[in-house]
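This entry is listed as follows:

___
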Amino acid sequence: MCNLGEGIREQAVQETQQKTWLQAVLNLMKSLKLSAEEAINALAIPEEERQTLLERIDKELAVR
């Protein structure tokens, strides 16, 4: 059972990190007129997180 709780906690931490990065990228895009790629590079977001983040950015911008 301990591993299940740890897994859920890790998932929650990762989701929170993704939301934070998403907001930071969107802020840079808006305030500094950067592309999503430029903003992601400026924030030095890890390579393994970039594709997921780009997909979330696309979804967020489609809603607006």
User: Anything to note?
Assistant: The chain has a mean pLDDT of 93.
